[in-house]
Amino acid sequence: MATIFWDTKEIEMTIDLYYTPGSAPCRLVLLVAAALDIQLNLKLTDLSAGEQFKPDFLKINPQHTVPTIVDGDFSLWESRAISRYLVNKYGAGSTLYPEDPIARAIVDQRLDFDLGTLYPRFGNLFYPQIFAGAPVDEALLKKLEEALVFFNTFLEGHKYAAGSNLTLADLSLVATVSTIDAVGFNLTPYPNVLKWFQLVKSTAPAYEETNGKGIEEFKNFITRLKAKSEL
C-alpha cells in the first residue's frame, strides 16, 4: 500500500485506488487525480494472481475490475465514471470537465469515442498478439487505422481533443494513445495526433509519474510475455 502526493495542495480525504500501473484505464485515474491535486491511497492489485477475485474486493466491486476507488463509504469502478466523479466532487470550476452543456458534450463524445472505438480497436488488434501470439489481423489493423484517422480529424484546428483547454478527454485519450505508441505502432501518418500527443505529455500534471511510469510497466510486461513464449 502506498500513498501518492502531487504537491502541497492535496485534498485531505484519502481515496483508495485499486489499480495496476500498466493498465490504461488505471493510468487515466492517476492522471485525473494529479490534475486535481487529489491524494490517493494506492492499492496495487495483482490481476495475474487473482487478487481481484478475493472476497473483500468482490464486496467493493462485484464486477472485479480495476480501476476501482473507495471514497469513504462509496465505491466506484470504470475509469471514465471515476474521472467524472472526481471532477464533480473535488474539482468545482475545473476546466477538465466544463459546465457549459455544449463544451461538456464534446468532452463526453471524445470520452465515448475512446471507450467505444479507439481503445477497443487497439485491444482487438493487439491483445491477441500480445497474449496469444496471434498474427496481425489486417482487417482489425484497418479498423484501428480508421479510428486514428477519426481522431486526427477531430483535432484539426484544435489545440486539445475537445477545444483549447486540457480536459478529461485528453487524459483518457492520452492513456490510450500512449499505449498504442508503446507497442510500436507508427503514429506518423496522423500528424495532428502526434502534435497533440507531445502537447499533452508536456502539459498534463505529473504526466511521467502517472502515465509514463505505467507505460514502462506495460512495456516490461510485454517483454516478459515474449520471453516466456520463446522458451
From TrEMBL:
<dbReference type="InterPro" id="IPR040079">
    <property type="entry name" value="Glutathione_S-Trfase"/>
</dbReference>
<feature type="domain" description="GST N-terminal">
    <location>
        <begin position="13"/>
        <end position="94"/>
    </location>
</feature>
<dbReference type="InterPro" id="IPR004045">
    <property type="entry name" value="Glutathione_S-Trfase_N"/>
</dbReference>
<comment type="subunit">
    <text>Homodimer.</text>
</comment>
<dbReference type="InterPro" id="IPR036249">
    <property type="entry name" value="Thioredoxin-like_sf"/>
</dbReference>
<comment type="similarity">
    <text>Belongs to the GST superfamily.</text>
</comment>
<dbReference type="InterPro" id="IPR036282">
    <property type="entry name" value="Glutathione-S-Trfase_C_sf"/>
</dbReference>
<dbReference type="Pfam" id="PF00043">
    <property type="entry name" value="GST_C"/>
</dbReference>
<dbReference type="InterPro" id="IPR004046">
    <property type="entry name" value="GST_C"/>
</dbReference>
<dbReference type="InterPro" id="IPR010987">
    <property type="entry name" value="Glutathione-S-Trfase_C-like"/>
</dbReference>
<dbReference type="Pfam" id="PF02798">
    <property type="entry name" value="GST_N"/>
</dbReference>
<protein>
    <submittedName>
        <fullName>Glutathione S-transferase 1-1-like isoform X1</fullName>
    </submittedName>
</protein>
<feature type="domain" description="GST C-terminal">
    <location>
        <begin position="100"/>
        <end position="221"/>
    </location>
</feature>
